[in-house]
Give the backbone structure.
Amino acid sequence: MPHFPRDINILPLQLPPQVTCKYTHTFVRIQGTNLNFKERVMFPTFISILDIQSWWEVPCVAHFCSLFSQIFNLPEFHIEDLEEALLADENEGQTTLLSDLIVSLLRGCDILHKCREHIHTSNYQMFLRRLFRRQCRIHNIENPFDSDTDFQLLPLRRKLEILHTLCYFRLESKNVPELLDKLEADSLRVEPLGYDDKNSAYWYFFGTRLYREDNLRGEKRQKSKSDAIWQVICFTEDDWTNLAAKLKASTSRRNRALSKILYENFLPKIPKLFKEKEDQRRRNFFKKASRSRALSLKKNSDSERELSDLDVKKLVKSAEDSSSDSSIEEGVGDHWNSRKRCKQRVATRGSGRQITN
C-alpha cells in the first residue's frame, strides 16, 4: 500500500482519539513545515504546471478526496484534474472544481453545522474565513486569512495550503469515527513502494501517476523540506513500462526489488486504470458542456425577461404622459402582446434544457 515519505508526519492538530489511533497515517505533512503561512507566501509570479506537479500537497489533497469521496460526499477527480483546476484558478479565476470541493468540505465541519445548508459557491468565502478563525485559535496555529483578502486573490500556493488544512479540519467532525469504521484501516494508509539505489522514495497514491521523492543529501535523513524534491516520473503507460525495465536491468538489489513490485502489482493493472480515467474524463467533458449550455440558456432567458420588463416601464410611462385614453389602451395592449411573445420565446428556449441530460 502507498505511504508518504519518511520526512512527512501528521499535522500538529488534535484529532479525536478514536481517529488518531486508527488513522494516524491518513493525512500528513512534511516534517518541520509548521503552518506559518506568512513565511511561505509566494509573491505573485508565473506558475507553471511543473511547479504545481512538484507540490506534495496536490497528491495529498487528491488522495484524501479519493478515499473519502463517498462517505464525505466530495467531488470525484484525478490528480491531473486538481492540477488543471489550480492552474486555471491562477490564470482565469475560481474554477468549479475548487469551489465545489471547498463547499463540500465546509458543509461537513461541525462548527458550521447550523448553517451548512446556506453554504454555496457564491458565499463560501465568508464561512471559510469564519472556520479558520475558530480552528486556528483552537489549535494555536497561524490563520492564513490574516486580513479580509479575497480567497481568489491569495497566492496559489497559499490557497493550496488552505485547502490541505481544510481537509484536515474535516476529519475533526464528530461523525468521522463512525463513518471511517466502514473502511478498512489499511486502505487509509499510504506507504512508499520502495527506494532505489540513490535512496529516492517512490510514491503511488491512486490513479495513473507515480511520484518520486529525491533527497538532495543522499542517505542522510533531513528535516527540512528544502532537502527533498518531488516529481512525477510516470505519466503514461510507456513511462511505467520503461521505468520497470530500467530498474530490472540494474545491478542494484534495491532497484531490482522495486522493479519486481512494479511488474507484479502495477503493470498488469495500469492499462485498465488508464482506460477508466479516459472514460471518466470523457463523461466529465460532456457533463461540463451540458452544464455550460444550460447556464447559457438560463442567461438568455433571464435577459429576455429583463428586456420585457424594461419595455413595460417605457410603455407605462408613455401611457401616463399621453392625454388620450385610447393611447393608454393601445399602449397597454401592445405591452401584453409583447409580454406574450416573450413568454413564448422563453418557453421555447426552456424546453431545450431537457436535452442537456
User: Anything to note?
Assistant: Strands lie at 8-9, 29-30, 194-195, 201-203, 210-215, 228-234. The first strand starts at residue 8 and ends at 9.
